[in-house]
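Please complete every field before forwarding. Incomplete forms are returned to the sender.

SECTION A: IDENTIFIERS
Entry label: holo-457
Bound molecule: pyridoxal-5'-phosphate
Molecule representation: SMILES string

SECTION B: INPUTS
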Amino acid sequence: MTEQKSTYAQRDIGSYLHPYTNLSTHAEVGPLIITDGKGIYVSDEAGHEYIEGMAGLWCTSLGFGEQELVEAAIAQMRRLPTYHSFRSRSTLPGIDLAERLLAVAPVPMSKAFFANSGSEANDTAVKLIWYYNAGLGRPEKRKMIGRHYGYHGVTIAATSLTGVPRNHTDFNVPLPGFVHTDMPHHYRHARPGESEEDFATRLAANLEALILAEGPQTVAAFFAEPVMGAGGVILPPRTYFEKVQAVLRRHDVLFVADEVICGFGRTGNMWGTQTYKLHPDIVTCAKGLSSAYLPISAVMISEQIYQGLVQQSRKHGVFAHGFTYTGHPVCSAVALKTLEIMQKRDIVGHVRQVAPALQGAVQALGQHPLVGHARGIGLIAALELMADKGARKAFPPENKVGEYCMDRAQAHGLLIRSIGDTIAICPPLIITAEQIGTMMERLSAALDDTLAWVRKG
Ligand SMILES: Cc1ncc(COP(=O)(O)O)c(C=O)c1O
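SECTION C: PREDICTED COMPLEX
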């Protein structure tokens, strides 16, 4: 250990296995221990305050310290702290939440199922589709298509849908029958001079070729995030989803929109599905559903799929899927309150109002010598750092330029995320235009530090 660590840091190293962490570095460096949060700010054990430029893990949409959510949890805790919904049991907040969610669904949806995380929601979607197709007498129609660098979680099926190599290597996934098609990253993967439209046509043709090669009678569903988050904040190129959805329809392949990041206002509409005119059969969501105050996720299904499940449960005597905490009353009460606040305070309207401040500042930073590509929509954005932006030459990954920039941002009082050399920004939706200005000044300072470091070699 290189420096004196707090007792908590030592205890953390001694006891806490951290997700998505370099475990060997962690044992040396220790944790950043966050102790308090208010609005868009969090502060650490030593009292340093940071702008939470990632809303935690793309999730704390209403910011920290929202008392109405706290009160909703307390009130429900007092009345009925827990109950399940197996075997036709139900709870008031669970019913209210299901109704409210269906009322704001981006396309007509019949029923909502609840789970605890985005991963579980996506695993559930996979299982429902298998069960549904089995009921239709076509159990061989079971393959799932994800996208390279798509992110859908870490449980076994969700991580199989995920297309990030490090999520697969040595973890014995993807499961058989999970295949991946192109990521729609025009800046990186378009051919010289290829328009967004032509790129989209090529990717849709590749998807169709994959479905034909696998055999359409074996392909069940395609999963996609409207904007790819953890893969690097990749916005779909113009006409991409229109062309992809036409392919899916041609081959009777279901479309699952993974709205875990985009849902609840992030892209300037309630859903990414609305922003990009999607027609999903299933929508999965989590994170912003409860502003991440308590773990809850949902799977919304179409009437057609619901009817298939009803038939199956008639045949088998039970729909044998569900979690102890499905529709947990306290989580449901907090999610319900989150949706109420979103409506009452017109959070989506607020996002639309302040998004130009963020996107304008992001485009301005696109002029920075390190930034090859600046992109975003609503209150999500990214800066892709390049060694030579003119020649579109990336840095060698081992130089960890993005990570350096993230560390410098932290030193300037801003928490953001590096995804390779892409810097992701995804602040709480309640951020003001003025706070966006401060956040981007800090990011600009981090970029300048990074440039100086890079130039020093
Ligand atoms: C698009 C998307 N889907 C699914 C997940 C998995 O959610 P969880 O971490 O709650 O399991 C994430 C997490 O970041 C995500 O971004």
